[in-house]
Amino acid sequence: MIEFSLIPARKTVAVLAGLAFAAVCLPQIALAQSTSTRGDLRLSNDQPIQIESDQLDVKDQEAKAIFTGNVKVVQGGMTMQSGNMTVHYRGQGTSISSGSADIQSIEVGGKVFLSSGTQQATADDGRFDMDSQTFVLTGDRVVLSEGQNVFVGCKLTVHMNTGEARLDSCGGRVNIQLDPKSQKKP
């Protein structure tokens, strides 16, 4: 098992905010073919990021790091697990292993599981693009849940700059199950 720990740079925290945000972004949603919503999640810039995997291949010439086999990323109360994760970074003289890499994008695949407190999300694949500040989860069934509230679609797109999120049905229908007992009392 490879363990890799970083004290996060601002952009690295944004990546994990995107991952965690996907798991918690749908507090109010209406049944439709596709829908938009707004959510909010704040993470600390000073929390370390712990990454574990069975194997790590750093390819500085290609500006990428490939984590394979039982990938687990933890920051604070947020956990992301997947079969693989590829981190693409840019710039000469930067390296993922030194924590100085300017991350361009992150791709996760092989069944993605996100958890933050009582909120969870599952998908087949995910991609976070740093330039557009967009995180996309895709799969046959993208499932978001908090307690008994469950949202199912096939593509979740989160725009980190605005906090806007969209759950698409990809030709079918978005399915939502809401538990009236989960409503916050004033």
UniProtKB/TrEMBL annotation:
GO CC, one annotated term: outer membrane-bounded periplasmic space
Gene3D superfamilies cross-referenced by the UniProt entry: Lipopolysaccharide (LPS) transport protein A like domain (2.60.450.10)
Segments forming domain Organic solvent tolerance-like N-terminal: 50-163
A molecular-function term among this protein's GO annotations: glycolipid transfer activity
UniProt entry tagged with the keyword Signal: yes
Signal peptide: 1-32
Lineage top rank: taxon: Bacteria
Gene Ontology BP terms: lipopolysaccharide transport
Keywords, alphabetical: Signal
Protein name, UniProt field: Organic solvent tolerance-like N-terminal domain-containing protein
Source organism: Ectorhizobium quercum
Organism placement in taxonomy: Bacteria, Pseudomonadati, Pseudomonadota, Alphaproteobacteria, Hyphomicrobiales
